[in-house]
Amino acid sequence: MTSFRVDVRPWLAAPLLVAALAAPGSAGASSIVYVKGGDIWRASPGGARKEIVVRARGATTFSAVTQDDRGRLYAVQAPSRRWLRFSSSGRRVGRAFNTAGAGLRLHYDPAHNLPGFAGPVDAQASSGGDLIASWGTLQLLDHVDPAAIPPKPKYFTQDYVGLNVTRSTRDDDRAQGLPSNDLAWPSFLRDGTVIAGAFGNLLKGYGIWYFRPGGADVRFWFGPTDNTLRLANPEVTRKGDLIALTTDRDSPASMDDDVVVGHLTGPPPAAPDRDCYWASPNGTVSGLTWSPDGTTLAWTDRVGVWTARFTVPEQTGQACVVGARRLLARSATSPDWGPGG
Question: Between vectors from CA 156 to CA 155 and to CA 159, what angle results, nearest 5°?
Answer without folding.
Answer: 145
